[in-house]
Amino acid sequence: DAGVTQSPTHLIKTRGQQVTLRCSPKSGHDTVSWYQQALGQGPQFIFQYYEEEERQRGNFPDRFSGHQFPNYSSELNVNALLLGDSALYLCASSLFRSSYEQYFGPGTRLTVT
Amino acid sequence: RKEVEQDPGPFNVPEGATVAFNCTYSNSASQSFFWYRQDCRKEPKLLMSVYSSGNEDGRFTAQLNRASQYISLLIRDSKLSDSATYLCVVKNQAGTALIFGKGTTLSVSS
User: Is A99's CB within 8 Å of B91's CB?
Assistant: First the structure.
């Protein structure tokens, strides 16, 4: 049973560029949440997708957008990259509104130069 | 005030020590509480859920005080392998997002 997978593992981009990160949820899960973890900080909630719709959004600008596909996988897009966007981007999968845990993928480490 | 606040750390303890982490949360309507463990440059992994009655898993004991909006984690007989960052986590009222504390780093030495 595959867990949450993310690609790519690492990514280096230049300021102003755009990036797309990908996530496949754990088998049986229908909800994908994205988090940003800056160095030395706890993860911060970006948004959550369920039934191909954004269900809730954290305090992130519109430069951050996402998508969920019919097979429940998801993409996170960040436009006009800033140096401050350098972070570990974590995808978590779960069952919608379940009180149980969210399972995290290994993350994508994004460096913006 | 941050939504979830944790002890600043780091905690440096010898093997066999007992160590306690504390955490407070601001939203009294929060329903679900967790401790996650994160190893260096890895993803967070659930250590244990936290219930009002308190719960124990081997050397780990978690407690929740809803009146004080306070969560704790006790680790007894610390092992070298316990060295990690421990994240206090509260699920938001809508039941969608996890709200993380900044994390407390534990280093266990021989």
Answer: yes
